[in-house]
Specification:
Blueprint: E1 4-9, H1 18-27, E2 53-60, E3 66-73, H2 82-86, E4 92-94, E5 100-102, H3 112-116, E6 123-128, E7 134-139, H4 145-148, H5 155-159, E8 165-169, H6 170-184, E9 192-194, E10 204-208, H7 225-269
Parallel strand pairs: 1-10
Antiparallel strand pairs: 1-8, 2-3, 4-5, 6-7, 9-10
């Protein structure tokens, strides 16, 4: 199966927010009205129940005019995801579609993924059990993995009327990204393809009209070495040692029981 990734060409986005509506509808996420704060941006940031936000940045052009720079903000589905490295419960994993997903059955709401996400995407939702006690679960965009499993495109991609969002084979996406970059360079001299290699690339690639920092994106995000050591080495080794210790204890108990049975048997024959 070929690798598929999502491409976001911000230079085609007109800020219609159809992707936001489609995301809410498909994932059955509750509405989150916000008080007017003087901005035409409908939501200031992602939340546990708003997985997709269109950001609005007004920028002055070289001729003294102004234009809007939009960005479809959602999970980038990193190839080396800091949230996955930080999770102590193995509740975050990669799917065959290269999406990064959270298993609500394993999530304990510790919040380590929230603290360590390279892009501030993961958030905690609060729920109540049948006794009224509150508990938390981490939530974010799933790249519509449930739709991908049915052979469908992500809901946001289907809703986009400007083809700002594309979900296609990786090689085709990269070719299109480079083609579009050469086409928009005259209008946007600082245009660039955002696919940070410090996290081994992402499965949502952007064509940005300006530097990543203009869009609130880190220039070169990286997963902390301590997280890599913890997740890929210390934790598996600890589990192996725990397993070995457990087996040793069980083995000792069985051995003692056998010796006891033999000893009692010897006494019976005296």
């Amino acid at each position: 199966m070929a690798d598929y990734i999502k491409f976001v060409d911000v230079t085609k986005c007109d800020g219609c927010r159809a992707c936001m509506v489609a995301c809410k509808n498909w994932n059955d996420l509750p509405a989150e009205p916000e008080d007017f704060n003087g901005s035409i941006q409908s939501h200031m940031d992602l939340t546990a129940n708003t997985w997709n936000v269109i950001t609005f940045n007004e920028q002055e052009t070289s001729d003294g005019n102004f234009e809007w720079l939009f960005r479809h903000m959602s999970c980038l589905h990193c190839n080396q995801a800091a949230c996955e490295k930080a999770c102590p419960e193995s509740a975050i994993s990669y799917t065959k579609f290269n999406s990064v997903v959270i298993d609500p059955e394993k999530c304990v709401g510790c919040g380590y993924c929230v603290q360590n996400c390279s892009f501030g995407v993961v958030q905690l939702a609060t729920y109540k059990d049948k006794n009224g006690s509150e508990y938390r679960k981490a939530q974010k965009c799933t790249l519509c993995t449930d739709r991908l499993e049915q052979g469908l495109q992500p809901a946001c991609v289907v809703a986009c009327h400007t083809d700002c969002l594309i979900y296609e084979e990786k090689e085709l996406v990269l070719a299109e990204a480079n083609k579009r970059l050469s086409e928009v360079k005259e209008r946007f001299p600082n245009a660039n393809i955002y696919n940070p290699q410090g996290i081994e690339g992402t499965n949502t690639i952007y064509l940005l009209a300006d530097k990543p920092s203009v869009y609130g994106l880190p220039e070169n995000p990286k997963v902390a070495l301590s997280q890599v050591v913890w997740k890929d080495y210390a934790q598996p080794l600890g589990k192996m040692m725990l397993g070995a210790t457990t087996m040793a204890v069980i083995g000792a108990a069985i051995s003692n029981a056998v010796r006891k049975d033999r000893s009692e048997g010897d006494h019976d024959h005296e």
